[in-house]
Amino acid sequence: MARTRHILSTTPLIDGHNDLPYLMREQLRNKIYGSNFTDGLLSHTDIAKMRKGLMGGQFWSVYVPCPGAVTVTEAAPVEPGIDDPNWAVRDTLEQMDVTKRFVAEYSDSFQLCTTPSCARSAFNGGKIASMIGIEGGHQTGNSLGAIRLMFDMGARYITLTHNCDNAFGTAWTTVDSGKEDKGLTSFGREFVRELNRLGMMIDLAHVSHNTMRNVLAITRAPVIFSHSGAYSVEPHLRHAPDDVLRSMKENGGVVMVPFVTRFLNMEHPENATVEDVVDHIMRIAELAGWEHVGIGSDFDGTPNVPKGLEDVSQYPNLITALLARGATDAQVRGVAGENILRAWKEIEDAAQGIQKEEKPNEEVWEGRSWWPENMDLPRMFERRCG
């Protein structure tokens, strides 16, 4: 454990996915000032547990369920109201707001970060770097303009789909229900281009396997999986297949392994342990390389977690288990946080180059409805015939 503590005292452990902000929304209606998040929470996460777990950074998930979804874990039917996105965009903005207010309220422990250099600086200053990720393309209202503004407000990754198809691509749940895996849509390709231009990390957790492949074929920057594992270890469609994992080496991205028991042991989830998480990490490292694997727990977004990883205080158990399997200190540092920081910096650098050549993408979803034109107002240009 001394070796583990030394590693985590000098390398920021950065988790790619935590749903505490969703609990704030569901259980507190975003009213956080009357509660104490320092310690004693029954959930997976509070500040004392994070400190005990030697955390250096957290991507807080801004999650809004798919339209029509009955529960968080059940697939939605064909998405109703896809052209009526006001509530999803509203709830996303409110959840971004509560995340930022939470970080500000506990500024002695947290620092809001929108760059990898900030994350390193926060860690070096004794704070837990706090980043925002949006968990589903449906939360943009199918709008490139909306995602630009969400980026400006601090979001730094977006999951292309959640548990429903959307204007951008096919979700894993569609394939799980026996329907065709159509992959990325034509508008989804425009979305990927704009995310690359912005420097927004593209998260392929929750998407179908063909959507993964389609994105990897066109992206101009590394991608991430904020909470997915290896399909060849456990054949759950939420995981990345071997060909995708091999592609991650060339892409430069990172697959961040979750602690969700039903993803780790489909037949007997109650038997899942920290060793199952290690199995996924080792397989991804074998196929993609140690530079392309990380941690994405999904704490507070799942009811059941593995033995040995009961809450955020238990991260050292995972690091110790990796070392026991033969991982080197350098490899473990990569898994803990160096890999995601490296990929994030490469995404930033790619965006800076793209922005020199491209203006913001003005493409519009083909299913978009527009208000009828008001013919009483002055016209900007002469009418064109034909």
Automatic annotation (TrEMBL):
Q: Which cofactor does it need?
A: Zn(2+)
Look up the EC number in the record and give it: 3.4.13.19
Species source reads Byssochlamys spectabilis (strain No. 5 / NBRC 109023)
Q: Which reaction does it catalyse?
A: an L-aminoacyl-L-amino acid + H2O = 2 an L-alpha-amino acid
Write out the entry's keywords from A to Z: Dipeptidase, Hydrolase, Metal-binding, Metalloprotease, Protease, Zinc
- Which EC class does it fall in? hydrolase
What PANTHER family does this protein's entry cite? DIPEPTIDASE, MICROSOMAL DIPEPTIDASE
Similarity annotation:
Belongs to the metallo-dependent hydrolases superfamily. Peptidase M19 family.
Q: SUPFAM superfamilies given for it?
A: Metallo-dependent hydrolases
Which protein are we looking at? Dipeptidase
Q: Which GO terms describe its molecular function?
A: metal ion binding; metallodipeptidase activity
Which PROSITE patterns does UniProt cross-reference here? RENAL_DIPEPTIDASE_2 (PS51365)
- BP GO terms, sorted: proteolysis
Organism placement in taxonomy: Eukaryota, Fungi, Dikarya, Ascomycota, Pezizomycotina
Tree of life domain: Eukaryota
